[in-house]
């Protein structure tokens, strides 16, 4: 939703990563943004403007004086149109030009003329990136309010390894979203979120687990980071990429999760338990792999794990405490019961038996219940969107 009806100008420079900007343009358009591309002449030698035209659905500008068929001054109209301006890849050349007030082509003149937030995505050879002149220019631009997405380290097109790689699209899209949101709804708030399913060891190779992927909790963490919260994500999975600007703590079983959540509790303003916690664990995990040759049948004795959310509810002082309920029947009634019993401020109830909801899918169907008994029900939507709604609703209650 954040991208719908938003105008994003993407400036593409003549670095070998220019082809990766095509993926960025495509992703932005898929999210509903109106994307306009300006390419430098060097960029147009690496990737044809037709590619960016096709992917953006708009004319691509390279030459300031070619095809003058509209009599508004194009670099000014694009500069004014932009809600966000992204330079990807940003070469040493464009960084140097803007830092020194040089506007001598379509891209540099438009950047100079815009009042929109400008994000540079530097991508170049390590030595070029680390050159003190480039670093000085970056420092100067940062001071002036320009935003930089750090390049990644790894294999470079020049067959060397080092810092200078074009970052993941998610990193760039996250920065853009933060600007588009512009609200900073949770600035100054410490938000602790748990995600994924706990794994209770039976022996060194087997465990009791559940079908939680962690997607729901990760989506909430991302949404909280977009709203400028100080986010800690306690994750029971390592399978998902860490969200941007989020501190990660990895745990395996319910007792590790319990310890992590309780150690963070005092300093937290908002705590959200999206993790699927195993209610039971084997009384003692075997030290060696259990051999079938030695056991015709096998009994595993289980003991109860701590109910982390319940304990947090008992200890609550200033925290806004949010739980989840994974139910298969009487979802609202069970949810209401949990709000009461676990002393929660909010609960997200999902019917995990419905197609497109619950475990290990990219969508969810949820109802938000509040401690005053009110209720909001939502249709099926992407977990990313639901995460944003949950964060908005929490912010409404906390601010
Ligand atoms: O990870 P995904 O694949 O995206 O799936 C998302 C989800 C279905 C896991 C998520 O939306 C969800 O419902 N999470 C909670 C799952 C769960 O454990 O529900 P529950 O009804 O058993 O527990 C109720 C609440 O108590 C939960 O907030 C849970 O984190 C907490 N709990 C439960 C047991 C326990 N021993 N300690 C707890 O803190």
Describe the protein in words.
- The protein has 2 domains: 6-181, Flavin prenyltransferase-like (Rossmann fold, 3-Layer(aba) Sandwich); 190-396, Rossmann fold, CATH 3.40.50.10300.
- Helices cover 35% and strands 25% of the residues.
- It contains 14 helices and 22 strands.
- The chain has helices at residues 18-30, 41-46, 49-56, 74-81, 92-99, 106-113, 126-130, 132-143, 169-181, 215-226, 254-265, 308-315, 331-341, 383-398; strands at residues 7-12, 34-39, 60-61, 84-90, 117-122, 147-148, 152-155, 161-165, 190-195, 200-203, 206-208, 230-235, 246-250, 270-273, 280-282, 302-304, 320-327, 346-351, 363-364, 366-370, 375-377, 381-382.
- It has an 8-stranded mixed sheet with strand order 13-12-9-14-17-18-20-21, sandwiched between helices.
- The model has no long low-confidence stretch (mean pLDDT 95).
- The structure holds ligand PMT.
- Ligand PMT binds at residues 196, 212-216, 254, 273-277, 279, 305, 307-309, 323-326, 338, 350, 352, 358-360, 383.
- Residues 1-190 are annotated as: Phosphopantothenoylcysteine decarboxylase.
- One of its GO terms (biological process) is coenzyme A biosynthetic process.
- Catalyzes two steps in the biosynthesis of coenzyme A. In the first step cysteine is conjugated to 4'-phosphopantothenate to form 4-phosphopantothenoylcysteine, in the latter compound is decarboxylated to form 4'-phosphopantotheine.
């Amino acid at each position: 939703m954040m991208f719908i009806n938003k105008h994003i100008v993407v400036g593409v420079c003549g670095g070998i990563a220019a082809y990766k900007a095509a993926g960025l343009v495509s992703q932005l358009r898929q999210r509903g943004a109106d994307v306009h591309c300006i390419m430098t002449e060097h960029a147009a030698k690496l990737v044809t403007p037709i590619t960016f035209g096709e992917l953006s659905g708009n004319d691509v500008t390279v030459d300031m004086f070619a095809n003058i068929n509209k009599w508004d001054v194009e670099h000014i109209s694009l500069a004014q149109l932009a809600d966000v301006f992204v330079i990807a890849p940003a070469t040493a050349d464009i960084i140097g030009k803007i830092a020194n007030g040089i506007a001598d082509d379509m891209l540099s003149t438009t950047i100079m003329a815009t009042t929109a937030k400008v994000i540079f995505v530097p991508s170049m050879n390590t030595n070029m990136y680390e050159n003190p002149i480039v670093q000085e220019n970056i420092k100067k631009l940062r001071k002036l309010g320009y935003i930089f997405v750090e390049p990644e380290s790894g294999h470079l097109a020049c067959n060397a390894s080092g810092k200078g790689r074009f970052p993941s699209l998610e990193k760039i899209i996250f920065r853009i979203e933060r600007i588009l949101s512009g609200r900073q709804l949770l600035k100054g708030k410490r938000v602790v979120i748990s995600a994924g399913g706990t794994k209770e060891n039976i022996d060194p190779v087997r465990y009791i687990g559940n079908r939680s992927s962690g997607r729901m909790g990760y989506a909430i963490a991302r949404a909280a980071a977009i709203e400028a919260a100080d986010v800690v994500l306690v994750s029971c999975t390592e399978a998902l990429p860490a969200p941007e600007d989020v501190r990660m703590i990895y745990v395996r079983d319910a007792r590790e999760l319990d310890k992590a959540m309780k150690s963070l509790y005092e300093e937290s303003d908002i705590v959200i338990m999206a993790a699927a916690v195993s209610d039971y664990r084997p009384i003692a995990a075997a030290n060696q792999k259990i051999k079938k040759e030695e056991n015709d049948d096998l009994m595993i004795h289980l003991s109860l794990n701590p109910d982390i959310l319940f304990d947090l509810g008992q200890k609550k002082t200033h925290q806004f405490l949010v739980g989840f309920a994974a139910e298969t029947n009487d979802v609202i009634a069970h949810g209401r019961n949990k709000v009461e019993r676990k002393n929660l401020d909010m609960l997200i109830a999902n019917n995990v038996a419905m197609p497109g909801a619950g475990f290990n899918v990219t969508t969810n169907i949820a109802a938000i219940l509040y401690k005053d008994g009110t209720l909001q029900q939502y249709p099926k939507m992407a977990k990313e969107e639901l995460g944003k709604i949950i964060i908005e609703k929490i912010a409404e209650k906390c601010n």
